Amino acid sequence: MAKDSNGNVLNDGDSVTVIKDLKVKGTSATLKRGTLVKNIRLTDNEDEIECNADKIKGLVLKTCFLKKV
Q1: Which residue segments constitute the domains of the chain, with CATH numbers given?
Q2: Which residues touch 42 (CB under 8 Å, ≥6 apart)?
Q3: Residue range 36-65, pLDDT digits in tens
Q4: 3 state SS of 63
Q5: Which of 4, 21, 25, 64 is the most buried (most CB within 10 A)?
Q6: Whole-angstrom Cα distance, residue 13 to residue 18?
């Protein structure tokens, strides 16, 4: 069961915000604090989710840096 930084349960299709500036490996882009990420997908690893943010597709984020909206 995937949970965000506050312990709220995450489900497929939820929207989350980033709670810390994150550098994206392989690009020069940075996800800024407060960035809204919509329509997340859960993975087999409960500490990670898949999503598309801004112009970055196929992003995998750790749930400890996310807050459910």
Answers
A1: 16-68 (2.30.30.40)
A2: 2, 10, 11, 12, 49, 50
A3: 999 999 999 999 999 998 889 999 999 999
A4: helix
A5: 4
A6: 16
